[in-house]
Write a structure and sequence with these properties.
This is SEC-C motif-containing protein. The protein has 397 residues and is mainly alpha-helical. Helix content is 54%, strand content 6%. The chain folds into three domains: 31-153, no CATH class; 160-256; 266-393, no CATH class.
Length: 397
């Protein structure tokens, strides 16, 4: 676990350095691609550190002591041979990326996310550059030939199993925020039915972490990449011994495991509608703003902090509008599944919780929960918006 965490840190450093270098040079780092692309030609252009990363990612033994030039030549031989084994850790998504480039003769003008391109490049499989004057991604000829020799039917069931493991893992950490390694293994096995060899799952998970960049390994397990106060979430979860983890269904977790998933609760949608009623703003921008609010709430932000965040993006001119925002924030907070609460929303843990349909109708009357103490804010308590007034004289009015 420690070694893998160090790999993640090192990769983040290299990506930051690359982005800074691109900024300093106006992004002029695109080499010319000659297709068919020579693997040797690409590798000799890399630094010793980048070659070492490829060697480490592909678990190639016996070449670590070689000098840069010799290491590059050794990798030319090893990378095509390592491809069949690497595919056993893939899901259908990564296979299809390579297939689409392979069927185009080894070059594609469809660009992918920087992180995902970095994943393939750091395994010696794909390289970005300019081809015919346009940004492109190319597969070295040696890798292309190795890929074309593979039989998809030999991997179909493996891809399906790996995809399910990955989605369950992403879904669990989307809702719980953090899980110990033992908790994660037990839950994935419970939902997937079997994990087979534990080391096989870990191999699949490590590759998925580096490709999807949605979760992060830590000293005790794994956490959602959006979780910013890991220690506090761990302490809060451990202090709530009377609460078990929320029992999600398989379908809920598989849905939450999809890239870019957002749990758009009725309160989330109502907040988006409120913003659009009061501002000239697109649905996409309003939805993105509310989604950011949800991330802050899951990290334990007070309603006053969430309101301050919103004020950074839009002007709130009067008290009535402020009250409307605070009411929406309260409803969103109470209806959001929270990492502190092991996947429950405050509404679900409230003794007086009501059906979702009623909550939608009575959103303006929603109780405010103090996100620090997790207690209901009374009318005579200080208003969580930070005004210094009593709640009944401010946002509850």
């Amino acid at each position: 676990m420690f070694f893998f965490t160090e790999r993640m840190k090192e990769m983040d450093k290299r990506q930051s350095a690359k982005k800074q270098s691109e900024a300093n040079t106006g992004g002029a780092l695109w080499p010319e691609l000659t297709v068919p692309l020579s693997l040797a030609d690409r590798l000799v252009r890399l630094s010793k550190g980048e070659l070492t990363e490829i060697r480490t990612n592909l678990e190639i033994k016996g070449v670590s002591s070689l000098k840069k030039q010799d290491l590059a030549l050794a990798l030319v031989q090893h990378i095509p041979d390592a491809l069949p084994g690497l595919l056993h850790k893939f899901d259908e998504t990564r296979y299809q990326v390579m297939k689409q480039i392979a069927v185009r003769g080894g070059v594609s003008y469809t660009m992918m996310d920087d992180e995902q391109l970095s994943y393939f490049t750091s395994r010696g499989l794909l390289f970005a550059g300019l081809h015919n004057g346009k940004p492109a991604v190319a597969m070295p000829q040696e890798v292309l030939e190795s890929f074309q020799r593979l039989n998809y039917s030999d991997y179909r069931e493996c891809f399906k199993q790996n995809a399910e493991w990955i989605k369950f893992t992403h879904g669990l950490l989307y809702y719980y925020g953090h899980l110990s390694e033992e908790e994660l293994l037990n839950l994935v096995e419970r939902y997937a039915g079997t994990l087979g060899d534990e080391y096989e799952y870990h191999g699949v998970l490590e590759e998925a972490i580096l490709f999807y960049m949605q979760i992060v390994p830590d000293s005790r397990g794994y956490h959602n990449r959006s979780l910013s106060n890991l220690k506090q979430v761990q302490q809060e979860q451990e202090s709530r011994l009377s609460i078990s983890l929320y029992p999600f269904t398989k379908n809920q977790l598989l849905e939450a495991g999809e890239p870019g998933f957002v749990d758009r609760t009725p309160m989330h949608k109502a907040f988006v509608d409120f913003i659009r009623r009061n501002y000239s703003i697109s649905f996409e921008n309003a939805d993105a703003l509310v989604t950011e609010c949800v991330i802050y709430i899951r990290n334990g932000a007070m309603p006053s902090f969430v309101l301050q965040f919103i004020r950074q993006h839009m002007e709130i001119h009067d008290l009535e509008l402020t009250r409307g925002f605070m009411s929406s924030i309260a409803a969103l907070s109470n209806g959001t599944r929270q990492w502190f609460l092991k996947g429950y929303s405050p509404n679900e843990l409230s003794a007086g919780s009501q059906p979702t349909a009623v909550l939608q109708q009575e959103q303006a009357k929603a109780d405010v929960i103090d996100m620090k103490s997790r207690a209901k804010v009374g009318r005579n308590d200080p208003c969580p918006c930070g005004s210094g007034k009593k709640f009944k004289k401010c946002c509850a009015g």
